[in-house]
Amino acid sequence: MDSAPVYTLAEGVPCASAVTAQHFGGNGIKGLMLLQDTQLIETLAHFSRERIPERVVHAQAVGAWGEFEVTHDISDYTDAKFLNGIGKKSKVLLRISTVGSERGGSDTVRDVRGWGMKIFTEEGNHDWVFNSIPVFFVRDPIKFPSLNRSHKRHPATNLTDPSMFWDFHNNSQEGIHALMLLFSDRGTPKSVRHLNAYSGHTYKLTKEDGSFYYVKVHIKTDQGVQNLTNNEAVDMAGKNPGFHTADLRDAIARGDYPSWTIYFQIMTPEQAESYRWNIFDMTKIWPHSDYPLVPVGKLTLNRNPSNYFVDIEQAAFSPSNMVPGWAPSADPILQARMFAYNDAARYRLGVNYQQLPCNRAVSPVYCPYQRDGFMSFTDNYGGDPSYVTSDLKSVRFVGMTGANGHAIGGHEEWVGEVVGFTSCLVEDDFAQARVFWDVLGTQEGQQQHLAYNVACHLNGAIPRVQAKALEMFGRVHPEVAVMIREEICKI
Ligand code: HEM
Fold first, then answer.
1. If you measure from the C-alpha of residue 20 to the centroid of ligand 1, how many angstroms do you get, rounded to a whole number?
2. Does 116 lie in the same domain as 69?
3. Is the CB of 400 inside a 6 Å radius of any atom of ligand 1?
4. Are 327 and 438 contained in the same domain?
5. Catalytic center at which residues (predicted)?
6. N or C: which end of the chain has fewer CB within 10 A?
7. Rounded to the nearest whole angstrom, what is the distance from the C-alpha of residue 440 to the centroid of ligand 1?
8. Are 89 and 34 found together in one domain?
9. Closest Cα to atom 3, ligand 1: which residue?
10. Sign for the pseudo-dihedral over CA of 411, 415, 420, 422
11. Known catalytic membership, residue 131
């Protein structure tokens, strides 16, 4: 079979057998092996390193590729390009998880299902990291680690522990709505094709003119919500722990692509101020009777991962991945999450995790101020300046500053204003340098030394860089620049 791949070691060297090890002392079973047996050593060494840290929550999952399609015009609310243009499609990676179990846990256990969805847009990656219930157990982010530990294993017994579970919830009763959803049959979905997902959080839809709307996202299954009973779920957990994984995989493989309809609930800032529920409290929904569902688009899953580890285990989702036209609200849980996910990904996958194929943006990425680090797979920006504000290579800056969605007036005072800030250079920034120059003037030859020392170094710079440096020294005192220039001329 000519088309069969030639077996090699990891650095490409062909090897005649994958099952032969070098034994000392001729044929026959003897256990003395050789350090020179690269194949054996590499095979054993790689095996010991096959595991990466599993996610501290949401470790067990199933995932697939698909597409998001805009079906309705919502251009009045947001400029986000992936949400504009009926018929527009964006590639999607979706990972649906249980929360509490370790990797390998049964698919049908009673739990919330996580919904990690990466939308590969023309403006960069946009992630929706949602849950299968519309409210959450806590509204204070500091409680999140405790919430999860109470659902996981007892530190002494290493068993899940109902006392621990209920002890936490008894003392955090703000989560009662979430708790009741969890203990309804929605806590044991029939399959991942039959569940809904919700942003839970309030986000912002923003426009370039500075206007914005608050939004909650609802993702509703077109297969219909279907659940298992408690007994069915327990039974299935024993019989077929990978039930949901197989169900999704099989459905996609036979072309029965599952789909979901995406809706927004939309609220104006003025409405938020007088609404009976605090819109930043994640334990509360907005009843549909107050804010009806506005149809937006459709999600379809149509491709199984060709390799689970590469596509799903290495995927990294974060609520902080958001494109222009979308912004965070002042929900404290969301604010905490904006830090936690990228931090987790750096720990779990390494600092260059955004370069992995499953996470890599389809739009151009130019981020030369984040470079090097373990496992850089790109050209690492070649010789482009690694520092900001360089004249040596021009970079175009577009879009809003870091205060995306926070830039305007009255309502922000109600929330608490956030602004994007970069300090400006003022004349006073040169005052202390000028005093230092004067101090040097009181010490024999010291101003001259400084001018000479600068000249020796600056002389090596290209002319336009030299000119700008001299201009800067001139702002300390014109004579500094004059003296340096004279010294350069002498070199
Ligand atoms: C303060 C609150 C929260 C914190 C600190 C937090 C933190 C985390 C962390 C550290 C992970 C693992 C990430 C990784 O290793 O890649 C994770 C996963 C996840 N979280 Fe949260 N979380 C919080 C609340 C929530 C809420 C409210 C939701 C849903 C609305 C949610 C949905 C998810 C999902 C879906 C995943 C799995 C993502 C994936 O498939 O990789 N989390 N969370």
1. 45
2. yes
3. no
4. no
5. 58, 131
6. N
7. 57
8. no
9. 337
10. positive
11. yes
